[in-house]
Design brief:
Helix content: under 10%
Radius of gyration: 24 Å
Largest sheet: 4 strands, antiparallel
Order of helices and strands: EEEEEEEEEEE
Structural class: mainly beta
Strand order of the largest sheet: 4-11-9-6
Number of helices: 0
Number of strands: 11
Distance between the termini: 61 Å
Length: about 130
Amino acid sequence: MKKYLITVKGVSYEVEVEEIKGSAVTYKAESPASSQVIPESKIAEPKQAAVKKPEPSNADSKNSISSPMPGTILKVKVKAGDSVKKGDILVILEAMKMENEILAPEDAVVSTVTVTEGSTVSTGDILVAFK
């Protein structure tokens, strides 16, 4: 039996988790750990930090491919000056233990490649720019 203290909307709960042979798990929640009960109407929603969008590089967003998700660049298949056709693989991005092929959206010439193999990217980071 393991005990955890979980806080939801400012109210702390002591939770016991018991592992049963096999894959079933039983959860038992006790009353709030604090003796003070606060009405839900008085609980302030947690403030979320402002999320700053990644600054795009000098490349025009119509003429570039950005990362659809955070991950690691496994392979860069193109270099500046390469001609690509619609559907060609530009970059292989590993995200959540899956390899994602980033494809050329149309026939174009690669202007710049802004990532290298092994680099980490965030959602919205420019991967490849076109002329």
